[in-house]
Amino acid sequence: MSMSHLPRYWSLQDLGRVLENRSLKSKLLDAIKNPALSDEERDLFVGVVALMEQWQVVYSSERKAVDAMK
Amino acid sequence: MKSLFALVEGYLPDQWKGFGGKYIDKVYSGMTPEKVIPSYYKVAEESLQKRLVPKDKYEAGYRLLVVDLEKLRNYRHSDKWDEILPNGSTTRIDGYRYSISKVKTKEIGEAEYSFSVTLSWGNHIASREREANVIPSDFKPIAKAPPSLVELTDTEALLKKAFQRISSLYTSTIWSGRYTDTQNTRYIKNRIKLSDVYKKMFVYGDRSVLPQLEALAMELLFPPKGEGVLSKEVEQLFMDWYMEK
Questions:
Q1: How far apart are CA B33 and CA B170, in angstroms?
Q2: Which stretch of A19-28, B143-152, B209-218 has the lowest confidence by average pLDDT?
Q3: Other CB atoms within 10 A of residue B182 CB
Q4: What is the chain A residue with the closest CA to B167?
Q5: Bridging pattern class, strands B96-109 and B89-93
Q6: CB A48 to CB B216 under 8 A?
């Protein structure tokens, strides 16, 4: 997976906006720990965190490349 | 037992003929179908119409037709979702008699189906009207999605479940009545795209589409800024949905 897989109108900044949204990620992580959560809800939150982590790898690598060019 | 049913949006009475699947998006489940659907299908009650049809479209004459696919399937005693149902299921709306002449369904993922309906109307179909009480009471429907052909890694299994939930979340977004028609169209298109790619990956095992699926899911969950007004709203919807639980 690479940035080329992102939708055309998604920029590196767009990706960063989501991945660096600590509030969102911490809410998701809190939600996963909530024992009252249904299996379906847990599936969603765990999956979304997994999705964000997949993209985090791409984002970090792209950021390094961009920073190196500065 | 939950009924699977669909909300079919269309303009009455002149523009429904042959609209195919244009406005059809989702087979809902568990929305108190006994109250909403006393027969195979009906025009949704006024309050439901007002809640689900965007105001401008409602005022322009758009209405929802509720189709109970489970009952239609019961009627045919069929186990196949892709079976084309017979002519003759009729209803009367504003003096017009309508017939559902074809219902065709297609599985697009576990517990998800797309389908198309063709309507026609006119007095000539009156003789084909069927009775609702031919449905066998012991029928147990609910088609199962085909077994996955793919051995999944742990991460892929996680993502698979997430994609299913994201798809459901977006369907509820589409029908929440809080977005404009243009925004809903975008949601519907993206959700259908997600379903198509999902099937390629998880039903047919085409792993090459996984990055596309991941990107699409990210876009659906977090639309970028500058791409309409959805970004914050969707994020908020996601969190509202969580907080309500």
A1: 21
A2: B143-152
A3: 10
A4: A44
A5: antiparallel
A6: no
CA distance A14 to chain B (A): 5
Number of residues in chain A: 70
Torsion over CA: A18, A20, A21, A25 (sign): positive
For residue A6, the Cα-to-chain-centroid distance in whole angstroms is: 13
User: How big is the A-B interface in CB pairs under 8 Å?
Assistant: 85
Q: Which one of A14, A39, A62 would you mutate to disrupt binding with B, by most B Cβ within 10 Å of its Cβ?
A: A14
Tell me which DSSP letter residue A34 carries.
-
Which helix (DSSP H) or strand (DSSP E) does residue A16 occupy? helix A12-19
Among residues B124, B136, B3, the alpha carbon closest in space to that of B70 is found at B3
Span B185-211, pLDDT tens digits: 777 777 778 877 887 787 777 788 888
Amino acid at B7: L
**Does the predicted interface ipTM exceed a cut of 0.85?**
no
Report yes or no: B91 and B98 within 8 Å, Cβ to Cβ.
yes
**Contact call for A11 and B224, based on CB within 8 A:** yes
Contacts of B239 in chain A (CB under 8 A): 24, 27
Token couple for B43? 């025009």
For A51, phi then psi, to 5°, come to: -60, -45
Residue pLDDT, tens place only, B153-186: 887 888 888 887 777 777 666 666 666 667 767 7
